[in-house]
Amino acid sequence: MINWFTVKLKYTKQLEDGTLKRVTEPYMLSGMTFTDAEARIYEELGTTIRGEFLVTGIARTDIQEIFPFDGSNLWYKCKISYESADADGGKSKKINQLILVEAGTVKEAYDNLAENMSNLMVDYKVISVAESPIIEVFYPKEDEKRVEPSKESSVKGMTPNTDFVAENEAETVDELEANE
Predict the structure, then answer these.
(1) From edge to edge, which strands make up the β-sheet containing 3-14?
(2) Domains of the chain in sequence order
(3) What tens digit of pLDDT does each residue of 40-70 get?
(4) What is the pLDDT of residues 84-127, one digit of tens each?
(5) How crowded is residue 170: how many other Cβ atoms within 10 Å of its Cβ?
(6) Which residues of 60-73 are buried (b: 16+ CB within 10 A; e: fewer)?
(7) Helices (H), ranges, 5-100
């Protein structure tokens, strides 16, 4: 399961006019834990940002989907709502989801959302489309696979202890009974 984290970085940024300004910018990335998210942001941006930067905050986000589009680097947070039938009682339940969509304008974001949601089998409503402050999104790495532990023992050269095998235990009990 992918967890999405918003990581806020504080660093000195050189603006287009050449001046330096201290900024705090949010980035979104995938990770398993908060520690993993922090390590990943250092890995992704450690060589890109000049000088020192500080992670000022890490928060798990409630984004369910991310739809990249054209590399415009503007992200829009879209809220949709739909109804789902409850399996137990048969009552319908309202479900809200947040989706991050990349686009150049609000209209493009709405169109991209509609295009990506076209295969959804339920009717949904778009509640809001708002520009997000997210600077960049770092997706899960394809080349990283979960390493499963080996079935072999990690300690080599050890043999099981046979001192307490059931037949040895039976002989000891018989000797005790004979001595009584």
Answers:
(1) 53-60, 3-14, 20-31, 137-138
(2) 1-61 (3.10.20.10), 62-149 (no CATH)
(3) 999 999 888 888 899 999 999 999 999 998 7
(4) 877 777 788 888 999 999 999 999 999 999 999 888 788 889 99
(5) 9
(6) ebebeebbebeeee
(7) 34-45
